[in-house]
């Protein structure tokens, strides 16, 4: 029994869409974070290393930003590989959500922000179909993360 609301066909097309952007995980992950920090500067406050960085260029070249961009993309990649196995999917999402809720105390609205930027980037690089086929996945990820936050008392 699956808690996932994605059909097998949707899982396959989402994986195809994700593969396109994941090929350049570090560059695309960095681009997503730089855009988030630039358009939503308050999100920088969670990252002690990035706080003082104002220029997008400086962020783009930062090893810390690049490292975290890659980390975010790797985590999503693990989720995408397990979209058809909700137990495995939740095994990845749950500890990640708990850590961000309890240790890092990241406002959960930031997950939606980062997912929306990933969708924007997909659309810019690969077109609307690519974005459309990944949209349900981002909703799934954000829904589960929000549920974990609620369990943690947010």
TrEMBL record:
<keyword id="KW-0408">Iron</keyword>
<keyword id="KW-0561">Oxygen transport</keyword>
<dbReference type="InterPro" id="IPR012292">
    <property type="entry name" value="Globin/Proto"/>
</dbReference>
<dbReference type="InterPro" id="IPR000971">
    <property type="entry name" value="Globin"/>
</dbReference>
<dbReference type="InterPro" id="IPR013314">
    <property type="entry name" value="Globin_lamprey/hagfish"/>
</dbReference>
<comment type="similarity">
    <text>Belongs to the globin family.</text>
</comment>
<dbReference type="GO" id="GO:0020037">
    <property type="term" value="F:heme binding"/>
</dbReference>
<dbReference type="GO" id="GO:0004784">
    <property type="term" value="F:superoxide dismutase activity"/>
</dbReference>
<feature type="domain" description="Globin">
    <location>
        <begin position="5"/>
        <end position="150"/>
    </location>
</feature>
<keyword id="KW-0813">Transport</keyword>
<dbReference type="Pfam" id="PF00042">
    <property type="entry name" value="Globin"/>
</dbReference>
<dbReference type="GO" id="GO:0005506">
    <property type="term" value="F:iron ion binding"/>
</dbReference>
<keyword id="KW-0479">Metal-binding</keyword>
<dbReference type="GO" id="GO:0019825">
    <property type="term" value="F:oxygen binding"/>
</dbReference>
<protein>
    <recommendedName>
        <fullName>superoxide dismutase</fullName>
        <ecNumber>1.15.1.1</ecNumber>
    </recommendedName>
</protein>
<comment type="function">
    <text>Involved in oxygen transport from the lung to the various peripheral tissues.</text>
</comment>
<dbReference type="GO" id="GO:0005344">
    <property type="term" value="F:oxygen carrier activity"/>
</dbReference>
<dbReference type="InterPro" id="IPR009050">
    <property type="entry name" value="Globin-like_sf"/>
</dbReference>
<keyword id="KW-0349">Heme</keyword>
